[in-house]
Amino acid sequence: MNRIWKFFQYGYLIVALMFLAKGVSHWDETGNKSYLCFGFAFLIILVFFFKRHFRKKVEKRNNLNK
């Protein structure tokens, strides 16, 4: 199951890149929409690092219990 989660965590980065691209493409048109997209991208990147840290912590704990 951990192998699946390792791949899914990179989905967060793909979504963050999509929000960054959308923010850059809307930069000249509407400033507020681009700031919102940049904000979502930042939050998604934080979620990626949090989930990765938590998954590694659980893996380490499971390896110690074996």
State the shape.
Answer: elongated
The span between the termini is: 17 Å
Give the averaged pLDDT, no decimals.
87
In DSSP terms, counting alpha (H) and pi (I) runs of 4 or more, how many helices?
A: 2
Q: Outline the low-pLDDT stretches.
A: none
- Biggest sheet details: none
The structure class reads mainly alpha
How many DSSP E strands? 0
Order of helices and strands: HH
Q: How many whole angstroms does the radius of gyration measure?
A: 16 Å
Strand composition percent: under 5%
Helix content: over 70%
Mind explaining what this structure looks like?
This protein is mainly alpha-helical. The protein has helices spanning 2-25, 31-65. It starts with a helix and ends with a helix. The model has no long low-confidence stretch (mean pLDDT 87).
Set down the secondary structure blueprint.
Elements: H1 2-25, H2 31-65
Summary of the model, kept short:
This protein is mainly α and 66 residues long. It has helices spanning 2-25, 31-65.
Characteristics of this structure?
66 residues, mainly alpha, elongated
